[in-house]
Structure formats: C-alpha cells, structure tokens
Amino acid sequence: MNASRFIYNQLLAHSRTDSLIIKNKLDQQFPIPEQYWRYNKKGQVIKKSTKRPTGLDRITTKQYPWLGDEDLDSDMFTNMKVHYQNAWNMFRKVHSAGIPKFKRKDRPVQSYSTSSHYSTKTVKNNGGVFSLYNGSIKFLDGSHIQLPKVGRIKVKLHRALPTNRLVRIATITIKHYATGDWTVSLLLKSDKPFHQALPKTHQTVGIDLNTDNFLTTSEAAVTANPRYYCTIKKRLAKAQRVLSRRERRAKKEHRSLRKSRNYQKQRGLVAKIHAQVRCQRQNFLHGRATTLIKNHDLVVAENLKSKNMLRNHALAMSISDVGWRTFLSMLEDKAPLYGRLFVEVNPAYTTQTCHDCGFVMGSADTKRLTLRDREWTCPACHVHHIRDHNAAQNILTKGQQWLQSGKYLAAIYG
Ligand SMILES: [Zn+2]
What we know:
By secondary structure, this protein is α+β, with helices and mostly antiparallel strands. It has 10 helices and 15 strands. It has 3 domains: about 90 residues, no CATH class; about 80 residues, no CATH class; about 210 residues, no CATH class. α5 runs antiparallel to α6. The protein is globular and about 90 Å long. The protein binds zinc ion (ZN). The site of zinc ion has 8 residues, from loops.
C-alpha cells in the first residue's frame, strides 16, 4: 500500500514538475537515453531523439531500490498508473472533480489494486475454463482467498459467489479503513451479463423527493426519512468530545498525536460510528432503489440539479443527509441491469400544478403553495390534493410526455 501510494505520488509529481521546469532542466533530470539517439555513417550524432522516458519508466528500481522488493506485486505498478490516468480523465471530463491530488499517508482509507492472471496450463488442469478458482488470484474455498505475494487470507463473504462457471476475476482492490477493518473487493468479468432483464410489469411510477419524508410515489406510497445521524447523534457527540479532550491533553504534554495511543483508540471509535451510519444509509438506498426498479418498467424522478432547493442552505443540508443524489445515480445504474427505464425530468411547476385539471397555483390571483402547505384544494376543479403525491403524479406524466416526444426518439435513433 505504501508503495502504491508512492508510485501515484511520483507520477503526479512528474506531471507537475514537467509543466513547470524548462526543457533544459528536464534534459538534465531525465536525460534522453542513448539508445534513442541517431547516428550518421561516421558515427556522429545527428539527432538527439526527443523521446524521453515517461510515466512508469521514470520510476526505476535503480533510483528507488526498495521498489524492487520481492514482496511487492508487479501488477500493482500498472494498476496504480491506471488509477492515476483515471484521476486525470475525471478532471478533464467531469469539471466538478479537481486536478489529481497527492495521497497522504494518514488518509482514512489506504488501498492497492492488483490483477488476476490465468495461465493456459493451470486453467486446462482445473476445469478447462476461466473461473474464480484457477487464476493467480483464486478462491480456495468459501472462506479463503489466495493473493499473489500476500498469500492465503481468510475472508467473510458479503454476498454469495456467482455459481455461473464462466465468471472470472479481473482486478481486486484491498482497502484498509480508519476503523481498522480490511476489505477485498473483486471486479468480476463474465461473457454473460450478471443480471437478467426481468419480465415487464406494465407498471410506471413517478417519485417526488421532499424534505418531510424521503420520497412519495405517484402510487401515494410514502417512505419515511431514515435520519441515521439523528439517532446516533448523542453517541457521536460524546465520542467526539472525548476525542478532542485527548487531543488537547496530548498537545499540552507535547506528545505527537500519532504516538498517543488513547487518542488513536478513540479516533478508531469515532470512525466506526461514522462507518456504521454510512453502511446503514447505503443499505437503505440500495434496497429502496432496487425495489422501485424491479417493480416498475418506468421510473421517473426529478432532476435535482435544476431544483432551486440547493440555493436554500437548510434544504441543501438535508439533501446531503438523506443522500438523494446517490439514490438517483443508483436508479440510473440499476435500471439497465434489469431492462428498465429511468428518466429524470425538470421539476419546475410539478408541485404547483393540479394533476387533475392542470391549473397552476400562483396564476389568476391565487397564492403559490409554500413548503408549509401539506395539503391543498384546487381552486379550479376543487379536487383535494396531498402535495407530494400530486407532485409525484405530475413528475410521472412529465416523464411519459418526454418519452413520447421527439427529443427522446432522437436520443435513441440519433
Ligand atoms: Zn384542478
């Protein structure tokens, strides 16, 4: 892990210095190797090539002998380069992601990745097809996994291994958390998709995200807000008070925080409470998203980006607490897995419009509904509405209209 962080940081450091130092200096630091030079018939140099070792080639074991250690996994180097390139791609494509940053040694999560290799001979002798059990990374049984350089380790499976024989291991990532936990995550590959498209349900649903509950569907089902932070707030606050007390004491006695054992112990506890909340919330979001996707052919939600809500500070806080953004991206990811459709629509006027007659509140001398109006009666057609349910129905209609419009067909057929 230390080595992998080092590689990443070196790659990044080179990219930063390259853009800063002038070419002459670069020649001094990373001279062009002589094998790239070209000579004329008399043996004189005609052209010094402009080729220069880049990327991984610059981080040599000559310079850093400890990188040649036999216990280090060579695949880790290439995997780190991929991670590094991904970080730059993220920066170029997604403007919200900043330029790659240096990884610190005291980061709460430390990790490294490596790949599985399959040798023709071992595969032939063990079943004849690539599987979870015959690569350089392999499962020995249900609770043990063999890793290159690390050896045999005991694992607890969080989900059943696929029984499909054609599944193979591509890459694994090993992580060490501030809580002291270790995880191994596997990226599996298969020629067949892991999820099968489900039969059509002929059901459609619109969902309205709001602050009083987690969501309301157009079928008038309400999911309450899981306020995990609220339930453990006291415990967390107490643990954090102890933590800062220990920090103050260590500073007073001029001890370094890294060496004060009581401080580190408490830090682990605080991290554990945070991790618990995170897991509970993820679990809740995954469960809710999967149910929605599995039971409906079409799921329509509002596009959070265009919601004015984020400008309101108090609401922005609660958005980040309940994790709608994560929820919407889960829906987006899960829909194609099961052969479903997920659509996001602009939520403008979905709350203010009467679903039955299309009257818009705020027009013709009526007052706009405020956040406090939970229920209302349409002044035009006198239908009584529950605000969120009405909004969810409008969101569904908007999604269906969009699907029938030319824009969607153009998006599909180009
Ligand atoms: Zn109406």
